[in-house]
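Q: Got a minute? One more chain.
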Amino acid sequence: MVCLELFVTFFKIGLFTIGGGYAMLPLIQEEVQSNGWMTAQELVNFIAVSESTPGPFAVNVSTYVGAELAGLPGALCATLGVVLPSFLIILLVARCYAAFRSSAIVSGVMGGLRPAVIGMIAAAVVSVGATVFLPDGVQAVSAVSLGCSLAIFGGMTVLTFKKVHPIVIILLSALLGIAAGYLLPV
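A: Always. Here it is, folded:
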């Protein structure tokens, strides 16, 4: 029963998310937390792991959630659920590409969806950012830990704009996080 629930949940997420993995974050967060599958902190921790492992973000997250809940069968059901809608839609679009290419309706739909996708990504950034920077609320944050997190974030932002390779940024972020963890015991 859990495997069917995982498949249906991640199928909905895959079907109604346009814009890739980051645009899926609000839906994944809502579904995973409303079903009681994991806490916000657990989800944020895996988002960080998912970003530093090979493969598409949505596949990594769905596989992880499925594996946590129902082992290998859960991982397979959740992963199949999240990728199947895109697969079916791409097959349909590829079959009808010539007709869609010049359609004013399709152009209008895409023009309306782009800002919505950016808004969903921004909402995910705010939600995940609050969990990362303020995990126990504003009153529980020490100036040192917040300053350290903001310094790492700022440094990595500068490196991103300087076009440093993303793998280097991920590795540096991980190393700085490890160093901060040893220097600033919780």
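A: DSSP finds eight helices and no strands in the chain.
Q: Perfect, thanks.
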